[in-house]
Structures are given as structure tokens and as C-alpha cells.
Specification:
The chain has 11 helices and 12 strands. It has helices at 66-77, 100-115, 122-129, 136-141, 176-181, 194-202, 206-212, 217-224, 226-237, 259-270, 284-288; strands spanning 3-21, 27-46, 51-54, 84-89, 144-148, 153-156, 164-168, 214-215, 243-245, 252-256, 276-280, 291-293. The chain is globular. It binds cytidine-5'-monophosphate.
């Protein structure tokens, strides 16, 4: 029986701006999103009933799991999708601001598309995925994109020039609804510039990208969890020049254009914190090769 092996790539936000609260409860955002080389692996196989296995103790194996929601959504829309077994190997930390759940959801959509030979385009899959989470369309369409609306409207950009990242994940998760809910937009005077980051990416200007990093949700998450602000300050004090919280947090990353510097910083952080990752921008080729049928 053929199986689909899918690599799901995590994301970071190089810029995250929040423009306004919408009547539907979501927030209007403008973000530059980047896929990174930190992956979950999903194995899909046709079976006699829907079934999910993960060895990870913080991941639900019921219908609240986005990977299972993706299976059921595809079965509802396409009669040729049979019951499926899903094995999820988790490396991406959970509730971390790295779109781990959306990554797995996108991976399942991609895997079903190939395993069941549905022939759907990425934008057709993204339209389905947007029903399950705002970050899912990006996870299908990276590696670098401008995201607007509630995050689901994706405009692919030229791939970001190679950057290296040291990620530090505190030992707790942040709820995205809480981070958005705690935001007081009227009290915020300065917004990060999405356009500056887009221009730097289009010009393949690494230094420009590094100088444009910004995340409006830091205001909110730092208030809810002061230890995240402290972590950012500690990473800056340790010598990193470009440090930012990803998404709604609590992961904080330091960005480098030099691999050796990133490696040295990684060693330093590993001595201090338990969940530390050294990674880099994922590229188009990696995303093109993320599904294999064997
Ligand atoms: O779309 P997703 O299910 O990932 O969003 C989770 C929650 O995060 C939403 O219910 C909402 O509270 C908040 N959110 C928001 N504005 C966005 C994205 C998410 O307020 N653009």
C-alpha cells in the first residue's frame, strides 16, 4: 500500500503588523512570513478508519487536532478520499508562534492531494486550508510571502536571501486568541514597516531584511508574559543584534546573515536554555520536494 511522507516546515514572522480589529473578531494583519528548516514529518496511509498517532504528550489525537480536521475536511469535499491513518512525528514546538499546528494541517492537505491523486493546485488547497486556520495558506505556499487579511491572503515574494536563526522556546505556550485579545491598538504609536522588509527581500538585501524585523504582538505577549520580554533582552545582551518574537510567541529568535555567528550563538544559548534550535531559511526546492509517495 503506497504511503505519503510529508515534511511540514515551520514559519517565523519577519514582520507582523496588526492594523485593526475586524467585526468578525479577527484582526486585519500585514505580515512577512518565512518558512524555516525546522520540520515535522507526517506519514499518511489509506486504512479502514481515521486514526492519528503521535508520540508527543501535548498533542491531542482527537478531532481538535488540525491534522485530523484536514483529513475530515478533504473527505467531506472529495468522495475519493478514504479513511486514513496519520502518523505525526513532532519536532516543531507546540503553541510556540511557529505555526506548528498549521504546518501539520498543510502537510496533510498536500499529502492527501498526492496520495489520492486529486490534482488540486496550491491555491485550491489554500482555499480549503483557510477554513481551518489563518496560517494554513502560507504553510502551503511559502517559502517567503506577504500575508494580509486575517493572514490567509498570500502573495508569494521572491525567496528571502539565506539567513540563519537561533530559536529559543520558553517552557510554556502562548494562546494566540489571548495574545490578539490583549492588544490595545489605540495605545501603540509605532508600527513595524512591512514595506521596508518586502523591499529588502526584493533587493536580496540581507542587512535590510535584518534591520526591518518587527512584531506588533510583542506589546501584548510581553504584557501577558514578562519573561518573554526578559528572554529577548537576555538574547540581545548576549550579543545578538537582531532579535524578535515570532508570531504570538513565546519563541524568540535571533537572526544572522553569517552561519558561523549563528552557530556560536546557538552554543551559547544551549548552555542556558532547554529548548534551543539552530535553523535557517527554507528554500523553494525544499518545499517542492516535501511530499514523497513510497
Ligand atoms: O485562524 P486561527 O484559528 O489560527 O486563529 C486563532 C485565533 O487567533 C482567532 O480565533 C482569533 O482570536 C485570533 N486571530 C486574530 N486575528 C488574526 C488571526 C488570529 O484575532 N488575524
Amino acid at each position: 500500500m503506497p504511503r505519503a511522507f510529508i515534511k511540514g516546515y515551520a514559519k517565523i514572522n519577519l514582520v507582523l503588523d496588526v492594523l485593526q480589529k475586524r467585526p468578525d473578531g479577527y484582526h486585519e494583519v500585514a505580515m512577512v512570513m518565512q518558512a524555516i528548516n525546522l520540520t515535522d514529518t507526517i506519514i499518511l496511509e489509506k486504512g479502514s478508519k481515521n486514526w492519528l498517532y503521535t508520540g508527543h504528550r501535548h498533542i491531542p489525537v482527537n478531532m481538535s487536532n488540525l491534522a485530523m480536521k484536514a483529513v475530515v475536511l478533504m473527505q467531506k469535499n472529495f468522495a475519493q478520499v478514504p479513511p486514513l491513518s496519520v502518523i505525526l512525528h513532532k519536532n516543531i514546538p507546540v503553541a510556540a508562534g511557529l505555526a506548528g499546528g498549521s504546518t501539520d494541517c498543510a502537510a496533510v492537505l498536500l499529502g492527501i492531494n498526492q496520495l489520492c491523486q486529486l490534482g488540486l493546485s496550491l491555491s485550491q488547497l489554500a482555499e480549503l486550508g483557510a477554513q481551518l486556520g489563518s496560517d494554513v495558506p502560507f504553510c502551503l505556499q511559502g517559502p517567503t510571502a506577504l500575508a494580509t487579511g486575517r493572514g490567509e491572503i498570500i502573495k508569494p515574494l521572491a525567496p528571502c536571501p539565506k539567513l540563519y536563526f537561533v530559536l529559543v522556546k520558553p517552557n510554556f505556550g502562548v494562546s494566540t486568541p489571548k495574545a490578539y485579545g490583549n492588544l490595545r491598538l489605540d495605545e501603540i504609536e509605532q508600527h513595524p514597516s512591512v514595506q521596508r522588509c518586502v523591499d529588502a527581500i526584493l533587493a536580496a538585501d540581507k542587512t535590510g531584511v535584518l534591520h526591518s524585523l518587527g512584531n506588533l504582538l510583542e506589546h501584548s505577549t510581553f504584557q501577558l508574559h514578562p519573561s518573554v520580554q526578559q528572554l529577548k533582552a537576555e538574547m540581545e545582551d548576549a550579543g545578538a543584534g537582531h532579535v524578535l518574537m515570532s508570531g504570538s510567541g513565546p519563541t524568540v529568535f535571533a537572526a544572522f546573515d553569517c552561519q558561523k555567528q549563528a552557530q556560536r550563538f546557538y552554543e551559547q544559548m544551549k548552555n542556558r536554555y532547554t529548548q534551543v534550535f539552530l535553523t535557517e531559511t527554507a528554500d523553494e526546492k525544499q518545499l517542492e520536494e516535501r511530499v514523497q509517495i513510497r
